[in-house]
Amino acid sequence: MEQNVNSDVLDKLTKVCICKGITRAAIKTAIKNGAQTVKEVQKVTGAGGGACKGKRCTEKIQKLLSEFKIG
Ligand code: FES
After folding, report:
1. For the domain bounded by 2-68, which CATH number is listed?
2. Residue 23 and residue 12 in contact, taking contact as beta carbons nearer than 8 Å
3. Is 32:70 a contact under the CB 8 Å cutoff?
4. Ligand 1 pocket, 46 CB below 6 A?
5. Rounded Cα distance, 54 and 20, in Å
6. Which 3 state secondary structure label does DSSP give 15?
7. How far is the CA of 27 from the centre of ligand 1 (A)?
């Protein structure tokens, strides 16, 4: 339980997309809500639309998808 609380807090503090300030929590929510691909996650969260055009965040989104994607 405590472990979960800590990881929830970390998810809210950790920026996956630095350019747009999108947190890991936001990415996970998008995946939970059914986003299946990097493109879909980017579309609903706005991640990847920053100055680096996804250079720094695409790989991290991909990794989160492979860990948390439903189905
Ligand atoms: S870190 Fe996501 S667009 Fe630059």
Report:
1. 1.10.10.1100
2. yes
3. yes
4. no
5. 10
6. strand
7. 13
Residues 6+ apart with CB under 8 A from 39: none
Enter the tokens of residue 56. 């720094």
pLDDT digits (tens, 9 = 90+) for 3-42: 788 999 999 999 999 999 999 999 999 999 999 999 999 9
Contact 47 CB / ligand 1 (< 6 Å):
yes
Of 22, 20, 23, 15, nearest to 51 (Cα)?
A: 20
Domain boundaries defined on the chain: 2-68
Give Dmax over CA atoms of the chain in angstroms. Answer: 38
